[in-house]
Amino acid sequence: MIRQDTIAAIATAPGSGGIGIIRMSGPEAEKILCRVFKPAGREQTRMESHKLTYGWLTDGPEVLDECMAVLMRAPRSYTREDVAEIQLHGGRYVVHRALELCLKEGARLADAGEFTRRAFMNGRIDLSRAEAVMDMISAGGEQAHKAAVRQLNGGASSFVRSFADELYGLQAGLAACIDYPEEISDEEGAGMLKQGLEKLISDLEKAVDEHASRLIYQGLQVALIGRPNVGKSSILNALLGEDRAIVTNIPGTTRDTVSGEMSINGFRIILTDTAGIRETEDPVEKIGVERSEKARREADATLLILDGTEKLNSDDRELLEHFSGKGAVVINKTDLPQAVSEETIHAVRPDVYCITVSAKDPESMKQLREYLAGYVEISDQLALTQPRHLDAVKRAVQHLKDAMITLDRYTPDVASTDLQEAQAALSEITGDSADEKLLDRIFAQFCVGK
Ligand code: GDP
Ligand code: ZN
User: Fold this and answer.
1) Of 170, 251, 371, 431, which one has the fewest beta carbons inside 10 Å?
2) Which of 230, 234, 360 to mutate to test the pocket of ligand 1 (most atoms within 8 A of CB)?
3) Which domain of life is it from (predicted)?
4) CATH C-level class of 7-125
5) Ligand 1: distance of its center to the CA of 234 in Å?
6) What is the architecture, at CATH level 2, of domain 220-375?
7) What pTM did the predictor assign?
8) What's the CA-to-centroid distance between 275 and ligand 2, angstroms?
C-alpha cells in the first residue's frame, strides 16, 4: 500500500554539525516548504524544481535560521514523490525546531528507512538497491563500500534477474511438457529439465562467494595461539601498533582474550590474543581459556606462536600436532639466540607454513602483515556477497535440488511446485516477491531520515 501522506525527518546524523538537513516527501511537501521557507530578497513565487534557493526559515513572524532550500518535484526525486530539503545551520536546537515546524504544518514523522521504502514502493529502486543504500551508510571500510556501490549500481539485481529468466525458461519447458504429452514424453521432458536444472544449480552455486561475503561484512578473524610467554601479546601489539594487551614476563598474564582491529587492503582484520591454553583450576584463568577456545574455533586463520629461544616443550608439541594448518606457525624472538628452527617444526609437522619473526623488529611485523594480506584477496568477478542474498540463493538451490529428486521419482508436473518455490526465493532478492514482514525487517535496520 502506498501511503499518501507527507513524511518529514532530520536527514543528517544526530548531534551538532556544520549543516543539518530536514527532508520531506509527499504531496504536501511543496506546500509545507512554502509556509516555513521565505526566499531572500523577493516575493514568494512558485518554487522552481531542482534549484537551490537561499532564504530564511520562519515560524510565523519569528526567523529561525538562514538556510537553503530545494524542491524536487515528482517523479524526478529520491522517492518519486515531491521532495523538499531544507539545509540549516547544524545546531541541535534549530534542526529540531525546523522538524517540529514541518510536523506542525502537516507532515508526519517518517519511520526508519521510510524514504527509501517509498523509493522502492514507487518502483524507483528494487530491494537489493534499497539495501545497498543502507550498506553504503554503514560501510566501515573500503571493501564494504565497494560492495555497496556494486549493488547500488544494480549489480546484484541484474545478476539475479538473469538466473530468474533462466528458471522461467525451464518452467515454460515444463509447462509445454505437461500440456503436450503426445509431443514430449515424460522421460524426454524430465531429461531436458534435469539438464537445465543441473546447469542452473551449478551457476547459482558459483555465483555466491561466501568467503568474500564474510570478509566484506565481518572481516578476517585471526587467532593468536601459543603457550604463555611466547610473545602473543607482543606480536598483537606490534601488529596493531599500540599497547592493546598487557605484556609481562610472568607466564599466564594474558588472562582474557584481547582483540584489536587493523585494516589490510580495505578489509577489517580482527586479531585475538588468546589466553594460555593450559589446563587450569584458577576460575578467572578458566574463563579466559574457554574464550580462547571459542576464538580458535571461529578463526579464519590461526597464528601458532612459538618461542624461538626455547626448545619445543610438550605444550608446544601438542599445539603443533593439533594445529589446523589454516594459518602459520610463527617462530618468535629471532633477535635472540635460537633453539628452534623451521626444520625443528617440519620434523613434527611437515605440512605447515613457517614464518620467523621478532616482535621487536618492525620489518618482520611487516612480513607478518603481508602474510595475512594473502587471506583477504577476493575475486573481482561479479558475485553475490550480501548475506540476505546468499541465504535466498541457497534456498533457491535447495528447491531446485528437490526438483531433481522429484523428477527422478514422479512425473514432471510434480516438480513444478519446487520450481515455483525456487523462483520465489530468487525474487526475494530484488523484492519482486517480498512480503510486508520481510520489508519491515529490512527497512527497520535503516536510520530515520533515510
Ligand atoms: P604471551 O604470554 O605469549 O602473550 O607473551 P608476551 O607478549 O607477554 O611476551 C612475554 C615476554 O617475552 C615479554 O617479556 C616480552 O617482552 C618478551 N618478548 C616477546 N616477543 C619478543 C621478541 O620478539 N624478542 C624479545 N627479545 N622478547 C620478546
Ligand atoms: Zn599475552
Assistant:
1) 251
2) 234
3) Bacteria
4) alpha beta
5) 5
6) 3-Layer(aba) Sandwich (3.40)
7) 0.72
8) 7
